[in-house]
Amino acid sequence: MNDARFLPKQAKRKRAGAIFQAVCLVSIGFSIAVLAILIVDVSRDGLRWLSWDFLSRYPSRIPARAGIKSAILGSLWMMALTAGISFPLGVGAAIYLEEYAPRNWFTRLLQTNISNLAGVPSIVYGILGLAIFVRFFGFGRSVLAGAATLALLILPVVIIASQEALKAVPNSLREASYGVGATKWQTIRYQVLPVALPGILTGTILSLSRAIGETAPLIMIGALTFIAFAPTSPMDPFTVLPIQIFNWTAKPQADFHDLAAGAIIVLLVVLLVMNAAAIVLRNRYQKRF
Amino acid sequence: MSHREAALTTPSGPGGASAGDPRSATPLDLGHRASRRWGERVIALVLFGCGLISVLTTVGIVVVLVTESAGFFREVPIAEFLTGTRWSPMYSEQHFGILPLLNGTLLIAAGSMLIALPVGLTSAIYLSEYASPKVRGIIKPVLEVLAGIPTVVYGYFALTFVTPFIRMVFPGTGIFNAASGAIVVGIMIIPMVASLSEDALNAVPLSLREAAYGLGATKFEVSTRVVVPAALSGIVASFILAISRAIGETMAVTLAAGATPRMTLNLLESIQTMTAYIVQVSLGETPHGTLEYKTIFAVGLVLFLITLAMNLLSQRITRRFREEYE
Questions:
Q1: Nearest to B205, CA basis, from B115, B293, B326, B295
Q2: The domain B99-320 is classified under which CATH number: 1.20.1600.10, 1.10.3720.10, 3.40.50.720, 3.40.190.290?
Q3: B266 CA to chain A: closest CA distance, Å?
Q4: ipTM of the assembly?
Q5: Helix A122-129 with B274-283: angle, nearest 10 deg
Q6: CATH number attached to the domain at A53-285
Q7: Is the Cβ of B140 closer than 8 Å to some Cβ of chain A?
Q8: Residues of B in contact with A215 (CB under 8 A)
Q9: Whose CB has fewer CB within 10 Å in chain B, the N or C terminal residue?
């Protein structure tokens, strides 16, 4: 019998614990440091390019004259159309799944399918958009084709977020509505949706902020990288901020890298504003039951 | 939405209007019930249609990838595609072996996991077991911001910061190298691993920890020998999802890792991933309908199948091996 096995060895164990805690702290510090370095790296290169001219000029082959007007306008078009397509479809699907769907194999299939779609790489959506929207439907390399592709890409996220918001609405509200004689749709339209709306909007804005940063699917459907005009209809060719950033980053000249950094700052500010809007919406209007 | 508005838009509804509105105190109007029931049916059908879109998306992806790849496999045998070690569809001497692209993809995935898994998991343990609410309040938003940064920005970061750094440490490394891509892909996946693993750790009931403390275990022992094993299925599921995301990641590896399909395990060499190849072809002038063009569908199909398999595996692990505590 070896009594050494029962020694508490407290000092050693405490030291192991301290080392582990230090390792965890280093991990956390790593993420924070990376974020800080990334922001410094981008600002150092890009801040001096930021000016009204940079925002209001079209791209140019000469770095000093280049701007991101067409990219900003393209991104705005893209955001509006993507939201217009994905919001009604996503909320509709979520209402069906939460309020109407029977508990059977088909509903389970729908639900599994949605969570699997959320894991499909974005470039595969690009291939789908290229084959279906650009060629089969004949939208061409247009804003509409891009928006339809991005809408399908973020649809699973919009659906899942909307479902969460609908789930959070207490059943007593529905029962009270049925109790005074409302139909199913009246109950949803006048009782459930108003309560769930802040949650739904928060989820939609967050998924739109993902769409606004997407590059690969839009390259697939053929968004042009050099566009010196603003789209005026959904059928026009377009470029967006991430594609402009990609284009400039891929060039060997350092001046274009700095332009990319300038565009990145604009893109990050847009994303920050969208995220802030989502958080404000969540905190201000969300009711807890 | 107020009752007044409800009353205005549905004048025929006996239920919607009657609540507290004296003007609508008319006898029940049963005449419109049939039309109302029809309206309800149409709405249910429309909503069902919205749900169906997601199924159509999956069907669309499968049909597009399979039919276009079928055209490719009529000209290139599947065996050659799956076992060939040279990939050069754009050269005069064409080779269609996907292994170099697969090699590049897996090299990036493996390299990025060296960063994402340990950092993500230890961050999760810290957040769930050690951090005070105040510290969590700082760290969680940082991770959310990192998760929200577009991948093309990580690509810029790789080229302008990570690559010069690597070239400083390992002189002679090319501008495009797998290491730079792997590092930024690893960084961008940390938040996902951290957040999913933390959820799994949080789901472990407090009583397990208390029992371990009662036996005299230190915090370190409780965390690593009780909580982590109890949450293992969720942690493993998050790891698999992370690998799947690294395999599907496109922009950062397109910008940083190069365009040289190559069988190598050297992270300092230029490589090409499946995703980067697809981007390269779609940026080029390859005409639609040619064999070269069809390669993107065949490569896309392989990419889709791999990520789908990993996502399904991750779901199965969460469902199968979850330890239920009550």
A1: B326
A2: 1.10.3720.10
A3: 23
A4: 0.91
A5: 30
A6: 1.10.3720.10
A7: no
A8: 150-152, 250-251
A9: C
